[in-house]
């Protein structure tokens, strides 16, 4: 088959883009010809539909008038501009090569681009292409989309988000139940996966340069926050926890952590963030908060891309995993958890907040992590959890770091479980069933 994988963007380090790479690899191994399709394609060899880019100015204008306020527009203005934009997208889609099936990532689920959803749906009808909606998030889960400004927008949300006459894939059981309850639509669960047959990421002569570039020492402790920088990642919870670790680390002077690194009186603790900075105001507040909490935080976005480029001093995300000692993952909401699987593959101990999907679909399988619990409240821009939980988690971090037997019990247990449940082999089995059903 000729199969398309479509999203607003491809080739970046966001979770959807990363998952599309995995699906492409598995589908090609199955013998299919696979096309990546996006409004933004980075440096990838991919099919470009420019008008569906996240940064498209026309859509940003339409979206604001569709969900925030009509302002100086009348309903007729919104309809006219949206329909013109729809026509533009459809013309671009019709230039794509022939395909049998397209997996449509989030275009039918978030309400972000009204015109794109209708255009992709109509394009598939015209070209007789089978569509499968691959839903990572839903518009009814986001406050922004909860009050459409007109019945016209509400009509779009009802009929194209998602269309009811196509097949549907979701990434967790909560999403499956939500889609059924909210729209009466059945779906197949395909969780995020990782290629556990790959060579393990290891330190080498190149990624070791990260240590030098940030003036770190070999006996410093490196905690990695590998996610994008957005509020729902609750990075402040990692800062809160590491602040307690900083207070206690002197008690372990001259001790050795699980990977052989020896801690001394000069060792420092760093929280390294190589992910995309997508909320500048939030990032600025994090920097100030880390300073207040005596946590050294390093923003490394400019040095991290999807692939390393040694001539330009660029490292991959995998390079940052390789040089880290511990992974923090305090997100309060995730569709599944790409960075969790990455940390497991990297064989690092992990700090997690038990976000709903982790609680329901992941932890019950037996994964071993340091937990921040599953209850939080938001005050102003930051998430907060009780201080006793933070203190307990910090003590467990130190216990795992300095107890080699316990650390490797956590690491190896997690690796075996993830390889069993979230491997490329498991994805291949599910994709065979889905393609056979259509």
SSE topology sketch:
Elements: E1 2-9, H1 15-29, E2 33-40, E3 47-48, H2 57-67, H3 75-93, E4 101-105, H4 114-127, E5 130-135, H5 151-160, E6 167-170, H6 173-183, E7 188-189, H7 209-213, E8 221-224, H8 235-248, E9 269-273, H9 280-292, E10 296-299, E11 304-305, E12 315-316, H10 317-323, E13 326-329, H11 338-345, E14 350-352, H12 356-362, E15 370-371, E16 377-379, E17 382-384, H13 387-401, H14 404-421, H15 424-437
Parallel strand pairs: 1-2, 1-4, 2-3, 4-5, 5-6, 6-7, 8-9, 8-13, 9-10, 11-12, 13-14, 14-15
Antiparallel strand pairs: 16-17
Question: How would you describe what is shown here?
Answer:
InterPro entries: Glyco_trans_1. One of its GO terms (biological process) is lipopolysaccharide biosynthetic process. Keywords: Transferase. With 438 residues, the protein is α/β, with parallel strands linked by helices. Helix content is 41%, strand content 15%. It has helices spanning 15-29, 57-67, 75-93, 114-127, 151-160, 173-183, 209-213, 235-248, 280-292, 317-323, 338-345, 356-362, 387-401, 404-421, 424-437, and strands spanning 2-9, 33-40, 47-48, 101-105, 130-135, 167-170, 188-189, 221-224, 269-273, 296-299, 304-305, 315-316, 326-329, 350-352, 370-371, 377-379, 382-384. The strands form four sheets. A seven-stranded parallel β-sheet has the order 3-2-1-4-5-6-7, sandwiched between helices. It has a six-stranded parallel β-sheet with strand order 10-9-8-13-14-15, with helices on both faces. Strands 11-12 form a two-stranded parallel sheet. Helix 12 (356-362) links the parallel strand 14 and strand 15 (370-371). Helix 3 (75-93) packs across helix 4. The longest helix has 19 residues, at 75-93. It is globular. The model has no long low-confidence stretch (mean pLDDT 95).
